[in-house]
């Protein structure tokens, strides 16, 4: 795949995403993104652009308390962080790590912004057990054999048979009981 073809796919994807999210400015620091309230906390080097945020935004970012957007090579990158009160909080994605993220993962001196999500929407948890019970898929259950362990099976014999170059299988036969009179 050449670069022209890749760029064509990127352009198609951007056309599909146009008007997916709508940005509405309410005041200098407050704005709506598809009717969802956000507040601009920091705008370093005029890094905030509401229209670009709307173009790059994804629903998965609704679960984060804070969203950091940084610019590198004329592209906006978004990353979410949790407040310690959020049930999804993990220390490596906590609000205290924003500064570390900016120093370690962003280009030095790049424009960035920090946005606070005023209405966090946690993803709905799905009960996997409940989903499995109603699944139309057929499941096979293994039944435990009511046989003694292989060493104690005197009434069976096993033969090893080669199938192909490096494969083999075992065939188990029932032993025929012979009368002692038929020798």
TrEMBL record:
Protein source organism: Limosilactobacillus urinaemulieris
Domain of life: Bacteria
Protein known as: YutD family protein
Region named Disordered: 126-183
Segments of skewed composition (Basic residues): 140-163, 172-183
InterPro entries xrefs: YutD-like, YutD-like_sf
């Amino acid at each position: 795949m050449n670069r022209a073809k890749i760029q064509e796919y990127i352009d198609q994807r951007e056309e599909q995403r146009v008007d997916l999210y709508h940005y509405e400015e309410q005041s200098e620091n407050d704005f709506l993104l598809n009717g969802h309230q956000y507040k601009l906390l920091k705008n370093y080097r005029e890094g905030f652009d509401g229209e670009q945020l709307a173009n790059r935004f994804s629903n998965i970012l609704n679960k984060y308390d804070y969203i950091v957007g940084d610019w590198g090579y004329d592209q906006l990158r978004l990353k979410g962080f949790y407040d310690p009160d959020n049930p999804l909080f993990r220390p490596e994605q906590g609000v205290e790590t924003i500064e570390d993220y900016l120093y370690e993962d962003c280009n030095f001196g790049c424009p960035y912004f920090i946005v606070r999500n005023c209405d966090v929407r946690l993803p709905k948890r799905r009960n996997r057990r409940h989903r499995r019970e109603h699944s139309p898929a057929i499941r096979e259950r293994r039944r435990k054999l009511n046989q003694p362990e292989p060493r104690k099976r005197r009434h069976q014999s096993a033969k090893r048979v080669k199938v192909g170059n490096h494969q083999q299988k075992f065939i188990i036969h029932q032993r025929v009981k012979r009368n002692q009179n038929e020798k």
